[in-house]
From TrEMBL:
Top-rank taxon, per record: Eukaryota
Domain Disease resistance protein At4g27190-like leucine-rich repeats: 240-338
Alphabetized SUPFAM superfamilies for the sequence: L domain-like
InterPro entries for the chain: At4g27190-like_LRR, Leu-rich_rpt_typical-subtyp, LRR_dom_sf, LRR_R13L4/SHOC2-like, Plant_NBS-LRR
Entries under Gene3D superfamilies matching the protein: Ribonuclease Inhibitor
Protein name, per record: NB-ARC domain-containing protein
Span of domain Disease resistance R13L4/SHOC-2-like LRR: 3-148
Pfam families: LRR_14 (PF23598), LRR_RPS2 (PF23247)
């Protein structure tokens, strides 16, 4: 088939490429993604000089042959290095990506490099590869692991523009450690992948200036196991103006999300808060005590639609009365395994004119909150409310809902015994029985 231009062998059990493939001199696109049995790529790949797309994502190759540098028409290269360490040691004579290979591909527009955690050969090669990437003038899409923060300095992040000019990136910065079980939920992982410019900072200390520069251009940020940070706002508000998605977990020294005094301080570089943020997921924070400290800035969290707190053992409440207005667009609230929470809203009601809170809320899930005694401190919750879910909230004896006010409520989930013990002020329990769904 000498005229063949596209060949897709993805997700097959092939172990190597047949010799006849390298005679397809008109081949433009070759897809081998998730061919897990392929561990080497023949040097003859360089004979496919018309190739524009080479997709090796999800394979287990040990290194790229230097002949890939002959594919000067490539516009897209995707490659994964996921081989076992023992097999890697047999190939010590090979560089994971030979010097000069990437810089030779001057037409590259998209480059995705995926590496195994704790890959020593990649850690040694990443700097040279990063320096070559910076010479690719047409590049607009990049997935890359920077094992050391200082490697970010190869790129120009100053001002409003980047060099190279990337409209789409997936950056992981820091030393990766392979984990048997990830504590991050699948929903949060999928949410992070939705965004065009995604920064993951893992196992970090302090707040390097290079991270701040990249963060300024990011729309999604995952802070994974930072060892020293006490407030997320320490990254600088102006550096997070574009953030739409924020996920943070296992930062044992973190005590608050926002320090409002940083916003209003004359010496601060920030005048506004997290104005674009739509999704926030906070999990496994050993010492997190509050979402906000200091003065309230009215623009932070105003765009937030989805909020989750999971496994935060020192967290006692979520909102203060003065902060509630900032969450007027919140649509979903999930609180899970926060054993010290007694009320979602702190007890000092300061505005008698408020009749209900969280006006846009549609879904609320409260699970494993054994000390929770009140949801809203007497206020009704959102007329748009559609779903309420409860589990192991044995001290919660009443719900802030009304038949006349919450006409859109269609489902309440919880244990049957807990449901039977609830007390109602303006209606009888049996008027809600038709939408109650027992979970035990």
């Amino acid at each position: 088939m000498p005229a063949l231009q596209v060949l897709n062998l993805s997700r097959t059990s092939i172990k190597s490429l047949p010799e006849s493939l390298f005679k397809l001199f008109n081949l433009r696109r070759l897809f081998l993604n998730h061919c897990a049995l392929i561990t080497t790529l023949s040097p003859k790949i360089g004979e496919l000089e018309q190739l524009e797309v080479l997709d090796l994502e999800g394979t287990e190759i040990m290194y790229l042959p230097k002949e890939v540098g002959k594919l000067t028409n490539l516009t897209c290269l995707e490659v994964s290095f996921f081989e076992p360490t023992s097999r890697r040691r047999l190939e010590q004579s090979h560089e994971i990506i030979p010097c000069g290979t990437i810089s030779a591909l001057s037409l590259l527009e998209e480059l995705n490099i995926d590496v195994r955690s704790n890959d020593n050969l990649w850690n040694a090669s990443a700097g040279e590869v990063a320096s070559e990437i910076c010479r690719l003038q047409r590049l607009h899409t990049l997935k890359f692991h920077f094992p050391r923060v200082e490697l970010l300095s190869y790129f120009n992040w100053d001002g409003e523009k980047m060099s190279p000019s990337l409209s789409y990136f997936r950056f992981t910065v820091g030393h990766l450690v392979e984990r048997i079980i990830s504590r991050l939920s699948c929903d949060a992982e999928l949410e992070l992948e939705r965004y065009d410019r995604y920064l993951k900072y893992v196992n970090g200390e302090d707040i390097p200036g290079e991270i701040k520069k990249v963060l300024r251009h990011s729309t999604a940020f995952f802070l994974d196991r930072h060892w020293t940070i006490r407030k997320l706002s320490d990254f600088g508000y102006r550096n997070m103006l574009q953030l739409k998605c924020l996920v943070a977990g296992e930062c044992n020294n973190l005590q608050a999300i926002i320090d409002g005094d940083q916003i209003e301080s004359p010496s601060s570089d920030a005048t506004v808060g997290l104005v674009s943020l739509e999704y926030m997921h906070i999990y496994c924070m050993k010492n997190l005590r509050s979402i906000w400290e200091g003065a309230v800035n009215n623009s932070s969290f105003y765009s937030l639609k989805y909020l989750t707190f999971s496994t935060c053992p020192e967290l006692t409440n979520i909102f203060t009365p003065g902060l509630l207005a900032n969450f007027s667009n919140l649509e979903e609230l999930i609180i899970d395994s926060c054993p010290k929470i007694t009320c979602l809203v702190s007890c000092d009601r300061c505005d008698d004119k408020i009749t209900f809170i969280l006006p846009a809320l549609k879904r609320i899930s409260l699970h494993f909150l054994p000390k929770l005694a009140s949801i809203s401190n007497g206020w009704l919750i959102s007329p748009r409310l559609e779903l309420m879910s409860f589990q192991d909230c044995k001290n919660l004896k009443s719900l802030p809902i009304s038949k006349a006010f919450n006409e859109n409520l269609r489902k309440i989930e919880g244990e049957h015994g807990w449901w039977q013990e609830l007390k109602w002020e303006d209606t009888h329990q049996d008027s809600w029985d038709d939408i109650f769904v027992p979970i035990d």
